[in-house]
Write a structure and sequence with these properties.
about 60 residues, alpha+beta, three-stranded antiparallel beta sheet, 3 strands, globular
């Protein structure tokens, strides 16, 4: 039951970590970081690098 609540909370996130993005897409961290350098879906907050989930989804949609 706790897992379902956690999963639902993850769906509500606006920003996700590089690791979470890799888990969702199946891409390696190296590939993800290369994509982040060339696109605008990356957000820096202090030392953390996060992915704007909506911008990343739009970028994926444009690729197909």
């Amino acid at each position: 039951m706790i897992h379902k609540k956690t999963q639902a909370a993850d769906n509500d996130k606006i920003l996700i970590s590089v690791k979470e993005t890799c888990e969702l897409t199946g891409l390696s961290e190296k590939t993800m970081r290369t994509l982040m350098k060339n696109n605008t879906f990356m957000v820096r907050i202090g030392r953390r690098t996060l992915i704007d989930k909506k911008k990343f989804q739009k970028w994926i949609d444009r690729q197909s």
